[in-house]
Every structure is written in C-alpha cells, then in structure tokens.
Specification:
single chain, 192 residues, alpha/beta, Rossmann fold, 6-stranded mixed β-sheet, 6 helices, 6 strands, 40% helix, 23% strand
C-alpha cells in the first residue's frame, strides 16, 4: 500500500473510534424517571389561581378536578396507593391520622387558565368552535423533603357537541377537566 492509502486508512479508523464513543451513537436511553421509588401518592386539595377566578372559573369546581385526578390515578395503577387528601384530612379531624409512609409523593394542582368558551358557537358551528378550556399546573413533591420532583401544565378542552343547546358551561368544564387529567396520566406513563 502506498503512504497516502495507509494514512487515509488510519484516519478513518481513528474517526470511527472517536465516533463510536460519541453519545449520539449510543442506544436511546429513557429519560430519568422522576417517579422512581414512589409507590404512594397523595392528591391534595386543588386551588384556583387568581387569573382563573377573574376568568369566571366555576366556584368549587377545582374539587371536581381533584376528585377526577384521584379516580384516574387510582384506575391507572401507576402507584400502589392513591390517597385523597381531602378525605384523609376528614379522617385526621376525627382523630385517625395515618403514619408517614416512605416513598410517597404529594400532588398539588392549581387552575391557571380557564376559558368558558361560547355555548352558542358550540351549538351553531361545532367542530371546535366555542371550546371550553381548563389549564392546570400539576406539581409533584417528595412527602419527606417537600422537594419538587416533577411539574407539568396540562390543558383540557371540550370542543363542542352536536346538541342543539351546545352543552352547558358545567358540561364543558367537566369534559375539559376529564381530558386534562387524562393528559396528566399519559405524561406520567411516558416518564415511567
């Protein structure tokens, strides 16, 4: 072999060795699972942000969203135990407090956006017109350290109905809440 070919061959081999050690060529790795080591989750009472209050979020409807989150998380089997903090607080008031469990997460939710949409537009146009939208910020914290483990904003949307009335605001808000909690469960499943 002449000198030029051997230098080229050495250069190519060196390039392959360098690239083989490059992270870009490694098999895709799953991102860190923020929920690893947590078997229990406590879902706290949800709150309504001031902006959502100004936007006319239905009074006490955050409780409906919180209960929906408890039910969907329990049904998903992503955690061994799902605790509704509103019921646990009622039990603690009666003197039956549960001992602190290791590997427990606390989920809090704040309604940060709300658009009731237009019932008339839903009835007349359907196909997404006049949609009700609810946006919630979910924060997961370690129960022992209170350190934030994961955060996500989810938006649910009720895009309308074929009914002549277009569906009421309560129905739209309830449907949007269902969808945003389903989005939360999917987000957790992606990380698991």
């Amino acid at each position: 072999m002449n000198r030029w070919c051997s230098k080229t061959l050495i250069g190519l081999v060196a390039l392959l060795v360098v690239n083989a050690e490059s992270p870009a060529l490694w098999p895709a790795q799953k991102p860190n699972n923020p929920f690893s080591g947590y078997a229990v989750i406590t879902v706290e009472k949800f709150a309504v942000g001031t902006l959502s209050t100004k936007e006319g979020f239905p009074q006490d409807f955050e409780g409906v969203i919180q209960k929906t989150a408890v039910a969907k998380l329990a049904a998903s089997k992503l955690f061994e135990k799902v605790i509704d903090a509103t019921e646990a607080a009622a039990g603690a008031a009666n003197g039956s407090s549960a001992p602190e469990e290791p590997g427990r997460l606390i989920l809090s939710g704040t309604i940060i956006g709300y658009d009731p949409g237009s019932q008339a537009a839903r009835a007349m146009l359907c196909c997404g017109a006049g949609a009700t939208k609810v946006k919630v910020r979910f924060i997961f914290r370690d129960a022992q350290t209170n350190k934030e483990v994961f955060r996500t904003d989810q938006q649910g949307k009720h895009a309308g109905t074929w009914a002549l009335t277009g569906g009421g605001t309560d129905k739209g808000t309830r449907e949007a809440a269902q969808k945003l909690v389903e989005g939360l469960v999917k987000e957790i499943q992606k990380k698991h």
